Amino acid sequence: MTVTEQLSALGNILAHGDLSSLFQPIVSLSEQRILGYEALTRGPSNSPLHSPLTLFAVARHAGRLSELEMACRKSACKGFSDLGLEGKLFLNVSPESLLDPSHQPGRTLKLLQTFGIPPSQVVIELTEQSPTEDFALLDNALHHYRAMGFSIALDDLGAGYSSLRLWSELRPDYVKIDRHFIDGIHLDAVKREFVGSILKMAEASRAQVIAEGIELPEELAVLTEMGVDLVQGYLLSRPQEKPPREARQLLPQMQSNQASLSEDSHDLSALLNDQLAVDQHTAIAEVLDVFRAQANLNSLAVLNTQRQPVGIVHRHSLSEALLKPFATDLFARKPISRLMSQDFLAVELTQSLQKVSRLLTSRARQRIEEDFIIIQNGRYLGLGRVIDVLKLITEQKLQQARHANPLTLLPGNVPIQQCLGRLLQQQREAAVCYVDLDSFKPFNDLYGYAKGDEVLLCLAQCLNDRVDPARDFVGHIGGDDFMLVLGSPDWREKLGKLIEDFQNQCRRFYRDEHLQTGCFIAHNRHGQRQEYALLSLSIGVVHVRTEDCAQLDASRLAEMASEAKRQAKAVPGYSLHILAGSAA
């Protein structure tokens, strides 16, 4: 097809609005619901411009990108409205079109008004196909969208020319990790490190992370264990003209919210308030009467006919909306669905307290007086209060502090035993590692306790650096003994890197002459001078498989780890001894 023919085909498409929109769901794993849908555009099926890559490339070449994107938005809004889809609508927008001098502010808002979609339901998803240089101008353009109530998402994080700077400058509400880092993440430790870093940055910037391009159950399992909550990909659903509406149908292979080894696995029963909810068709005047009758009521869940949450209404938001002139007369007989918020948190009763706390803190707009919804198998149970979560988390932190090692602040013996118990209860495969420092007592005697404490802190840091909080656990038994529980399949690789890290890090603690000779002389327990090798690690490992869990208890598992460590210490220098869990 010649360039002239391509331009002619593009002109026909734009003239007649001959575009189709497909919708791919974005699913919240913790809430077991569809957060929203990304709208994806296709050209006419019988056209050479059917592929979006070709279509947008031709539009960019013709200088008509902004015009095409507006046509795509119109198609997406119409399809979303016609289908009556619930949740967020993610609309792809390029920085180029926003910065185009021909771009007319306000057109997207008019489109939404035409199709009856509130701006609060729409996410502007920024896609980067070429370098962005004028960050200030782009920030200003997006500020107008935010002022109108839109949310902002940054697409393909890690793939663009300046995506990290865009994140820093624009502070989006959502960030999408590029699918390259999702593909085969269960087999690639570097990709897991990258995603882990993104999750930490997102927590600091109060952004929600979306992992897109998920195609394998193993990828989804790893992302879930790492703490990723929002997911998208062919494994769940391909883009469709009529997409699925129920998240639970898309996640048949998911186990219900398995807690990490380092956190309590109790459910949310202690937080549950058995509060009545309202139907989405209830008149606003009736909802207002409910709030007036219950002075301490902050929020009400809004349900559909299947008792599934579709929104939430907060006292302060409803009051603000009805304070406007003539608002009461205008809205009194309207259904509460007109004023409810669709930006709510709903969590399964089986969810862990720590997970709920992380979800709440990741929500930039969550207010302490607002409530969240607790569900069971997708259906409404009651409400939970943010303040109650904070109280319970504070109590747990105080409890953890009482059982923490005073030097390293790592969990002590009580949490270690609890971790081993959870491992067996959840029947999870893991490597239970007893880590011991060789030559530590004579080193301590020769170099002093202060230097010895530095070594212990160094080892604690090396251990923490090798731990994935979503899958692993590290504790301090006491003295120079540590416990490491690795739930990831690459535990051998992690232990190898741990040994390498500590070997490099601890060199700074020795005198030059000891580094040169590879040993030092100190008094032994009998008061005699003795030559000792430099510090090294002896690691005893019990490899626990799923089928071993029923045959073990926490005390026996700890004994086996200690025995494996004793076998490792029988070998001079850095050593690793592995016992099978079935050896019990």
UniProtKB/TrEMBL annotation:
Residues 271-330 form the CBS domain. It comes from the Bacteria. GO terms for molecular function: cyclic-guanylate-specific phosphodiesterase activity. It holds the Pfam family EAL. PROSITE patterns: CBS (PS51371), EAL (PS50883), GGDEF (PS50887). Residues 428-582 form the GGDEF domain. Keywords: CBS domain. Residues 3-253 form the EAL domain. InterPro entries: CBS_dom (IPR000644), CBS_dom_sf (IPR046342), Cyclic-di-GMP_PDE-like (IPR050706), EAL_dom (IPR001633), EAL_sf (IPR035919), GGDEF_dom (IPR000160), Nucleotide_cyclase (IPR029787), Rev_trsase/Diguanyl_cyclase (IPR043128). Signal peptide: none annotated. This is EAL and GGDEF domain-containing protein. It comes from Ectopseudomonas oleovorans (Pseudomonas oleovorans). The lineage of its organism: Bacteria, Pseudomonadati, Pseudomonadota, Gammaproteobacteria, Pseudomonadales.
